[in-house]
Write a structure and sequence with these properties.
six-stranded mixed β-sheet, six-stranded antiparallel β-sheet, 49% strand
Amino acid sequence: MADKIQRSFTAGELSPALRSRADLAKYANGLALCENVIVRAQGGAYSRPGLRFVGEVGDSLNRARLIKFSFNVEQTYVLLFENLKLRVIKNGGYIETSPSVPYEMVTPYTTAQLPRLVVTQDADVMTITHPDHDPSNLNRLSETNWTLTTINYTSQVTAPGTLTLATIGTGAGSYTKTYRYVVTAVSATTGVESLPSPEQSTATASLTETAGVKITFSAVADIEYYRIYKEPGSDTSVSSGTFGWIGDTKATTFADFNLAPITSDAPPQDRQPFTGTGNKPATVTYYQQRQVFANTNLEPQSIFTTQTAIYDSLRTSNPSRADDAVTFTIKAQQVNEIRHLVPLDSLIVLTSGGEWKTTEGQDQVLTPSTVGVRPQSFNGASWVPPVTINNTALYIQEKGSRVRDLGYEFSSSTYTGNDLSIMSEHLFEGYQIEEMAFAAEPYGILWCVRNDGVLIALTYQREHQVWGWHHHVTDGIIESVNVISEDNRDALYLIVKRTINGANVRYVERMEVRDTSSASAPFCVDSGLSYNGAPATIISGLNHLEGEDVTVLADGNEVTGMTVVSGSITLPRAASVVHVGLPYLPVIELLDVDINSPSESVKANQISVSRVTIEVEKSRGGFVGPKLDDGSTGQMIEIKPRFQSDGYETIELKTFKQAVDIAPGWSQGGGIRIEQRSPLPLTILSVIPKIDVS
């Protein structure tokens, strides 16, 4: 059998259930194992960069959660929510009120409530919902001054007081009618209309063009103008409650000479749907200039919006106006609670039992008279907040162990998607996804926290039909993840629970840039820190790794056998660029050798691989060896990093192809394992095993 080249790894780590499916296109691009290695959409397999230590959480005894806060792409923060408090992180460090004193603010959210927090953001204001709390706004006043306030949905514009009515003019009609009026005030600052004044009525001879009613009311501060509403004339003393607009005025008087009320333009009515136990919304978003809430304990299938562009107003009117707040309920065969609201081209409603699309009539504008819902599929969503990638939503299915995408399909005119976990089910079976975040730059990866503390990741490019899974482990348990724009990239932040010097701690850490500009630049250690300065042998400031065995890259050379004592290590020779942290092992294993044919296979044959040619990019180091039938690894041979042209200085990162002779042996798989044991980058572009088949 001729040498077989694998040029791409975009299918990622495939499930053992697919190990006999060489007829699938993804088999040719897949891996049996992809650990601490990122697969890129272009095809290569890249050892992941390390995790830089940011700081310990305030209370290492309890879990915490990371939530991003983005004013724009330059002003971004990570909010560390802990039990009844939060801290703020920026550019890889805590915001401090004084040296080594992180800024903290009090919150009402307990550790147990943190997983159910749902947030949405508008500029410097983040709205937070939880079914046990009133909706609140977190406002950034400065980096060391944040406020958390319950949203007040009562009118902030004062209505005019009691009206005075007087008849004016001559020539009134011959029969008596009762006329009722209310007046509202429109703010000069916000343009928001107040609730109506108390109703005032007068019984008088019927009005004409020359006989009218003069309405007088007291002035209200900071008002642009007043709106006058009138009930259609009545022959009874009982109010119908229906009023229509008859005019505006900047003065505090208005004359009604038998003006006909426009009842389609009615005064606003107060509405407080979130008052009382069981009426707190569980989820929130923005859509078409409205803030949208959903799912209270008493109304789990109901959706509530604010007025258009007035986010602290839930008011309506009767009859309704186009900019009124909207309330509607999904009527379905099952009462499945609404868990997420996703604003795409339409508002997508993810419930525990299915996916729905809101409809807004011919003009595609959400109003009380146009709103409707239409089912799209019936997979159901978990409570993990979905992520939006371009015009597609990725979400966790209801049981928590499948990842799906959802996007508009023109041919069917519906939102539909794929089960993205089907090819790598072994990474999900028996587990649940607890959190996820998407980093568009530089690699386009969805990062997911599994409930056992493993970080599984999906390289996702829907337009190119690329999705491949890989998983990442560290000496600890990953508990939370989020991504913010930082330094022209999407920076991944994590909370990692580690055992350091015999004690359990929780650290915030940030995945670093994969820098291959020189041999000394790569940061390939976990929970690590760097020194950059004059040549030194003593590297201090490592108290967070006290008592731990660490790996070191000093001026591009690996240093082993180091243990942190009294917060420092002593190098055998001075270095000016040093990275110190916990080691991790990037490793890939190729799938068994087989033929891409529905009717032929070599899986029943004995296979021997005696040589492996590996093409690498900007790399140094690595080991390669056979994967045996019993799952063990044969003798691993180093990919020699030095060439005859090299001098005696530090070996730089190189792009090259190298043939490695490995110990030949007959097996039924012919699998290959490649490891990177040094704190240096390894980028694999292709693998060519020399194969003999019995």
